[in-house]
Write a structure and sequence with these properties.
- There is one protein chain.
- This protein is of the alpha+beta class and 424 residues long.
- The protein has 3 domains: 7-111, Rossmann fold (3-Layer(aba) Sandwich), CATH 3.40.50; 131-198, Dna Ligase, domain 1 (2-Layer Sandwich); 204-418, 2-Layer Sandwich (D-amino Acid Aminotransferase, Chain A, domain 1).
- The chain has helices spanning 19-27, 62-75, 89-99, 106-113, 115-124, 170-187, 245-262, 295-304, 308-316, 357-361, 399-412, and strands at residues 7-11, 30-34, 50-53, 80-83, 132-135, 151-155, 165-167, 194-198, 204-212, 215-223, 236-239, 267-276, 280-287, 337-342, 349-355, 366-371, 378-379, 390-396, 414-418.
- It has a 4-stranded parallel beta sheet with strand order 3-2-1-4.
- Helix 1 links the parallel strand 1 and strand 2.
- Helix 2 (62-75) crosses helix 3 (89-99), helix 3 runs antiparallel to helix 4 and helix 4 crosses helix 5 (115-124).
- The longest helix has 18 residues, at 170-187.
- The mean pLDDT is 94.
- The protein binds adenosine-5'-diphosphate and calcium ion (3 copies).
- Adenosine-5'-diphosphate binds at residues 130, 152, 154, 158-162, 164, 197, 199-200, 204, 227, 232, 272, 274, 284-285.
- Adenosine-5'-diphosphate binds next to strand 6, strand 12 and strand 13.
């Protein structure tokens, strides 16, 4: 028997990123929050939509976490389970499968997240795939020397660009491969191999979509800069991206076909691509979740009016999505532009001051300033990833306005550092 209101377990959502909580409240969906281990949530100060906190060590002890979910479900059944946190996607898929709830299926979740399987499946389906080589153990990199350089070396199961590094020549490859294995050992939970693939030049795009019973509604296509490496920090995101109609059509075709190739039929997705030579879309990856811990919801909502997070929660609970725009209109009609500016670290050491954020927060175009680093925090130089100082989410009449605004932000925001000293 169902509870009067749908209940969805939400795994490892940062409470400082508010959109999924606000959407749940508006949609009348109750959330059981599994808090991030580094972000305890007090039961008397619950985020909107949250009716219960259920601490579980999903990454450290998945078997115990699954057993606890099973116990919770048999005493008081919930309707679904979901996450916006990429590393937890396979766990959530397994849990849904075991409990008989809607989900991706563990096999699909792993194929999506494992860049070896993902590349193979896309290639088998005839999609655009750069030359690539899989490295199964440290030391061996000879097989990759036959690729066209530059290449990009990355963990097969990575996320947040951790360890993703460009190698410009076969002579540099061995050292870069060693460095990426090193980052994997120190930063990633589980590392099973590396992928070396040809560097895709051209603009980077992010595509927000919602799939339902195999139909993929492409909501927005956004511009993510043109990163050149050697490391790939996140930078800007502005949607809708200004694209020639035939390029836009090619992007939509590639993204829709990738869903089919990977078996992702239901739920929100965040696809990253690069336009090789400025024209031909090549997938970087397809995340079977809302992107950017909710940033993708913000972008889709402001560009299209769709409540992506609410629909994602409905799908997780086995309900039909509400606000799907015309599925024949791909991407959905844009009513404005939205953007995310990720404040660059611009240095390393102990932060002594962040200038400009208060001024930016007061700008009527700005809806959220999400500050993640503060005075006193230590920023280590790349490739040792510390996190991003802040996100600035804003809406604009057009993408051109967003671009101008981002140029202003680059001048307005400054971070001062002192030497980190003995802090390490
Ligand atoms: P992660 O899962 O860690 O996010 P990605 O494969 O998405 O790994 O790579 C992170 C970033 O590195 C991408 O957003 C892109 O900017 C860059 N990148 C990765 N692979 C390539 C490639 N083959 N060519 C060009 N840039 C790449
Ligand atoms: Ca990823
Ligand atoms: Ca990525
Ligand atoms: Ca990225």
């Amino acid at each position: 028997a169902h509870a009067p209101r749908p209940t969805v377990v939400l795994v490892y959502q940062r409470t400082s990123l508010p959109w999924v909580f606000d959407s749940a409240r508006k949609a009348g969906i109750d959330l059981v929050l599994v808090p991030r281990p580094d972000e305890p949530v007090s039961p008397d100060r619950l985020p909107p939509g949250v009716v219960e906190v259920l601490p579980l060590d999903v990454e450290g002890d998945p078997a115990a976490a699954l057993a606890a979910l099973r116990a919770r479900h048999s005493s008081r059944p919930f309707d679904g389970i979901t996450t916006l946190y990429d590393p937890a996607v396979p766990f959530v898929a397994d849990a849904a499968e075991v409990l008989g709830l809607p989900g991706l299926g563990g096999g699909t979740a792993r194929a999506v997240q494992d860049k070896r399987l993902m590349r193979r499946r896309l290639a088998e389906a005839g999609l655009n795939v750069p030359g690539f080589v899989v490295l199964d153990e440290p030391g061996a990199s000879a097989a990759a020397a036959r690729l066209d350089f530059p290449v990009v070396v990355k963990p097969a199961n990575g996320f947040s660009s951790l360890g993703v590094t460009k190698a410009d020549s076969p002579e540099r490859l061995g050292a870069v491969v060693d460095e990426v294995w090193q980052v994997c050992r120190s930063k990633l939970h589980q590392v099973t191999g590396l992928v070396v693939e040809e560097f895709l030049d051209g603009p980077e795009l992010a595509v927000e979509s919602l799939a339902h019973r195999g139909t993929v509604q492409v909501l927005t296509i956004g511009y993510k800069g043109e990163p050149v490496g050697p490391h790939f920090e996140e930078g800007v995101y502005r949607a809708p991206a200004p694209l020639a109609p035939q390029v836009q059509d090619a992007v939509v075709r590639e993204v829709v076909a990738a869903h089919a190739a990977l078996g992702v039929t239901d739920g929100p997705t965040h696809t990253e691509l690069r336009l090789r030579g400025g024209e031909r879309p090549y997938l970087l990856e397809l995340g079977a979740r809302i992107g950017g811990s909710g940033v993708s919801h913000y972008i889709a909502e402001h560009v299209t009016g769709t409540d992506l997070a609410a629909d994602a929660l409905r799908l997780a609970a086995g309900l039909a999505p509400r606000s799907l725009p015309d599925p024949d209109q791909r991407p959905a009609r844009a009513r404005g532009a939205a953007a995310n500016y990720i404040v660059p670290c611009g240095g390393a050491g102990r932060i002594t001051a962040l200038h400009g954020l208060a001024e930016v927060a007061a700008d009527p175009r700005v809806d959220h300033v999400v500050q993640m680093l503060h005075p006193g925090d230590v920023v280590r130089p790349y490739p040792d990833f510390t996190g991003y100082p802040a996100f600035i989410l804003s809406h604009h009449p057009s993408t051109k306005d967003a671009e101008e605004f981002h140029r202003d932000l680059a001048d307005l925001i400054r971070i001062d550092y002192a030497p980190a000293g003995d802090a390490q």
